Amino acid sequence: MRTRPCASGKRRAGPHDRQSRPALHRIRLHAPGAGGSLAISLTAPPIGVFLVLRRMSLMGDAMGHAILPGAAIGYLLAGLSLFAMSLGGFAAGLAVALAAGLVARSTVIREDASLAGFYLLSLALGVMLVSVRGSSVDLLHVLFGTVLALDDGALLLIASIATVSMMTLAVIYRPLVMECFDPQFLRSVSPLSSPTHLIFLVLVVLNLVAGFQALGTLMAVGIMLLPAVAARFWAEDVGGMIGVAIASAFASSVVGLLVSYYVNVPTGPAVILACGAFYLLSMLVGVRGGVLWGLMPRRHLEA
Amino acid sequence: MKATAPTLGFHNLTLGYGRHPAVHHITGEVARGELLAIVGPNGAGKSTLLKGIVGELKPLSGRLDLDGLTKRDIAYLPQVIEIDRSFPISVFDCVAMGLWRQIGALRGLDARGRDHVIGALGTVGLIELADRPVGTLSGGQFQRVLFARLLLQDAKLILLDEPFRAVDTKTVADLIRLIERWHREGRTVLAALHDMEQVRTHFPRTLLLAREVVAWGETRAVLTPANLAKSREITEAFDAHAPVCEREETRWSA
Description:
Order of helices and strands of chain B: EEEHEEHHHHEHEHEEHH
Helix content of chain B: 25-40%
Radius of gyration of chain B: 19 Å
CATH topology of chain A: ABC transporter involved in vitamin B12 uptake, BtuC
Shape of chain A: globular
Strand content of chain B: 15-25%
CATH architecture of chain A: Orthogonal Bundle
CATH superfamily of chain A: ABC transporter involved in vitamin B12 uptake, BtuC
Oligomer: heterodimer
Distance between the termini of chain A: 67 Å
Helix content of chain A: over 70%
Number of helices of chain A: 14
Radius of gyration of chain A: 20 Å
Number of strands of chain B: 9
Number of helices of chain B: 9
Largest interface: A-B, 27 and 27 residues
């Protein structure tokens, strides 16, 4: 079956889409899909900014793998049900993130090492589950998520996650900034250090799960981190970075969606490549440490 | 000085890592409003003692009395700071963290709070740098920022762990003036230090440590050549096969 592109956005994902398994490149733009990516562009980049500032950029990637067994269990139990896969993915991601966080805080192991331990375990479990019960095609579907055309229910779930995530981030913003900048100080004045960290980990997982529906597991990490890394070249404070990250993610989503619609390429990679293009551009011309500025022969100032 | 109530009481307190004590069997009291220097060679247990007071380390044995002081009443400047200096935050915002007790996680910084921050920056002589990112400051300037933050914490008990590392003499003089101001305001200040001249000049009382209390009292009486020699003799070794300590407690009255 070949799904037709539909600019009016009236087309719904019907039962056909779920039963058939179109090739990756046949997924096309439609309204819930576009809405989903745009919602993700609002909520994932701020999380990415904090991951970058905490030097945990690669954690997003690790978590993307960690949600695999959960999504796989959901898939094996309920078939291609977005809800079951999301719930499973969320549970698995949360288990890994919390276990890693708690182990890092109560033993000699640092957070990155304990996370690596748990996510590799989780990934292996996921691959094992899928290969025992399903086929390698299933594994690809779970990893790339792209067989899933978003329906209205999924869009609602993504929008809810985006809303909850942004509100939570607003509430924990100050302790989170302090936890990134000077965790020892936060610990010395308040008992909020560990709760803040754990809530933040939950937000990371929630946003990955939301992104996994819209863009696929692996691509979800891209929209979280690429705009955040690029933002460091433009802004000098956390608020500014978040603003730049959201704006560039949003613009990249629009560009990616349009390109995937007109040129007939899959949406997820198109959006992430647009984010990546902005990242490369920022690296060259960004006003805070862009490479080209350094090459320009300019005389130093008086003070 | 005997008349004032103690704010800190150590009762046969032993602190350490694993089962190995870094400093053991401390018994004594620190009076409210006291300005106390903690001196001793590297590995004497100065930092460990401060970590114990602030609650980062649980006692291996013995007891610590804080006389009702809570986390909020204690300001602590650690020796090894975990601060990420490349973090994009301004000097102003960094110092404003000291107002946590007033504004917590959610309340905004009102005009009065802003004035407090500016005032603290003025005290440490950094008003012009308020909007600069902390990453652009020199080591000494950053130490002043940390002192401004301590100032805003308005704490009853202030713990400073080697606060003058890598700081020039002008800055040290300014920061010592600030410590003396805290002393006049009746706050209790404990500072781990290395410069004996500094201690003799500015700190009325001293605790000489060498993994146990060597001497504790008036600075002049504590920093004698005999005591200092004794503190150097006591081994710094961390013996992996140390036997169980059976020592009786010795009492040092402050």
